[in-house]
Amino acid sequence: MSTPVPIRVLRGTDLMDLVFAFPGLKFDPVTARRRLVRADSQREGLLVVTFGPQHVVEQAFSDQVLGESRGVPVGSVISGKSVLVFEVGPQDFIDYSEDGLLDAMRRLPLRVVDAAREPEQSLSMTIRPTDGTDGRSAGSQDPAGWRRRRSRARPARREGRIPPLWG
Questions:
Q1: With the C-alpha atoms ordered 90, 84, 23, 16, is the resulting torsion angle positive or negative?
Q2: What is the pLDDT of residue 149?
Q3: How far apart, in whole angstroms, are the C-alpha atoms of residue 36 and residue 49?
Q4: pLDDT at residue 19 is higher than 90
Q5: Global confidence as pTM
Q6: SS3 of 64, please?
Q7: Which of 85, 83, 81 is nearest to 24 (CA)?
Q8: Fewer CB within 10 Å: C terminus or N terminus of the chain?
Q9: Per residue in 65-92, is it b (16+ CB within 10 Å) or e — as a string?
């Protein structure tokens, strides 16, 4: 049996918009119920869920501020699509319904690339001056020199900051 075609699940009550794909899965030929199982128990089966673009930053309005401009369109920054991949084990099954697919996302293990995993050991680094001192001038009561010296260890440019969209 071939892999089921991807389906889109829309729900207006909470604006859910998901696309489900089923590589390595097939409809279970044994049961009368429509459920998905691995097509080959020796090969991996995956449930791939794609979320449409979502707002990362959106302008907010206060009910307390009188005369606040509420012009349309509202300023926002939109992200790209997001994809989650779940591993379907040899004994796992997924009911082929909206509730069954959403339940599978709750109970199946998430497949995550190694770069996105937490390290097994936490990494920490201590930066000390090379002259063997604590970085302060002898007899100094003001640690400003220490702050200046410490601030050189910070990155010169910060990446990933979202620029302000409105003043």
A1: positive
A2: 45
A3: 15
A4: yes
A5: 0.58
A6: coil
A7: 85
A8: C
A9: eeeeeeeeeeeeeeeeeeeebbebeeeb
**C-alpha span between 76 and 150 (Å, rounded):** 36
Q: For tokens 């401009």, name the residue.
A: 69
b/e map 11-20, b = 16+ CB within 10 Å = eeeeeeebbb
Of 80, 75, 26, the C-alpha closest to 51 is 80
Residues in a beta bridge with 83: 50
Instruction: Give the list of residues 6+ apart from residue 76 with CB closer than 8 angstroms, or none.
Output: 55, 56, 57, 58, 59, 165
Instruction: For residue 47, give the H/E element and its range.
Output: strand 45-51
Coil vs helix vs strand at 30: coil
| CB-based contact 51:82 (threshold 8 Å) | yes
